[in-house]
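Exercise 3.2. Students should predict the tertiary structure of the chain below and write it as C-alpha cells, then compare their answer with the key that follows.

Predict this chain's 3D structure.
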Amino acid sequence: MYDLRNTKYEFLNAWVHDCMEKLVELDKEKEFNLASYFSRLAFIASIQ
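Answer key:
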C-alpha cells in the first residue's frame, strides 16, 4: 500500500515504479495490458 501522506508527484512516481516492476515481471507471460495501467494512472492523477 502506498503512503497517502506523500505528495501527488511522490505518489505517482512510486506507482509508476511499481507498474514498471510489474511490466518486467509479466513481460514473459505476454498477458500484460499496458493500456490498463496508463488509464489507471491517468485516473489517479485526475483525482489527486
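Discussion points: DSSP finds two helices and no strands in the chain. The CA atoms of residues 11 and 41 lie 11 Å apart.
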